[in-house]
User: Fold this.
Amino acid sequence: MNTGHRVAEPLLEPSHLAHQEGERMDQHIPVEAGSRDGVAGIGRIVAVASGKGGVGKSTVTVNLALALAGMGRTVAILDGDIYGPDVPILLGVRRRADVDERDALMPIGGGLAAAQRHQPLERHGLGVFSLAFLVGENQHLLPGNAALSGMLIRQILFDTDWGERDYLLIDLPPGTGEPQASLTSQIQLDGVVLVVTPQSTAVLDTTRSYQMFREAKTKILGLVENMSYFVCPHCGERLDMGGDNEDGRPALPTITAPVLGRLPFDPAVSRSTNSGRPVVLSEPSSVVAAVFRDIAETVDQTLYGGGGRPG
Ligand SMILES: Nc1ncnc2c1ncn2[C@@H]1O[C@H](COP(=O)(O)OP(=O)(O)OP(=O)(O)O)[C@@H](O)[C@H]1O
Ligand SMILES: [Mg+2]
Assistant:
């Protein structure tokens, strides 16, 4: 049940955005002690989630990570998408098509000995570990076993040597089932970034995700509206992508959260997916890259209050 949260202004109203931006300075969140024993070297753990598939979660994860790194933060990514672990591909890490099952085995239920702990790969200045590293590119992982996916994500979180990092970003699969439920109930997240597109189905699905994180008492850092508009490269006209009302905005939302940024649809993003160099690196002067840098500034302001990492 979600009593108690106020009926929101329309999700994407400019006035709403301005109002929320003004609140940034008040959002510093102290991290409480406990429930982070296995990841003591990590300053802030942030999930990137959405109720909807294909809205750009993985794209946001890798570009936000790179934008934070560009600010001097040390960042790692845990690819927690058991159904479509895309982070390695977005970062240009390819794997063998198939691996021997024995190479993919992890002991379930117990921590790994120090010598067996996973080492994150270093790529573009980011640490990365993915469930995909346990299988080949053409293989799927534990089909149909949702409970195990929750267990696995916890395990790779705690059995990977992340070292000292200011941030660990966790890219999640779509939906509100597993591994999201295990993650929110057993790991202290510092916040979640919700990714949404302007269409009402995406907003509806993301509203479910929003409710789930609220119920889990995870701080909603804000919404990223992806593929929000398109600027014609020939005439410069700006076209809004979707939105169901006459004013072009979705009819629903009961989401009250800051809008961290609106990203245009930009074919450079798709190109960067293929090249393994996310757009923040490959096209740093693009609007998309600039919006990602703004989002990173806001997230960092919220989670570190503009300061350095506490000792
Ligand atoms: N702003 C954008 N402009 C153009 N293409 C984009 C943009 N954002 C994402 N895409 C493209 O949309 C597709 C889906 O993006 P992505 O894989 O990040 O979504 P996802 O939410 O992680 O998907 P899944 O639910 O399958 O994990 C990719 O091909 C990506 O390149
Ligand atoms: Mg994804």
Observations:
- Confidence is low (pLDDT under 50) at residues 1-34, 101-110.
- The CA atoms of residues 224 and 261 lie 5 Å apart.
- The chain has ten helices and nine strands.
- The longest helix spans residues 287-304.
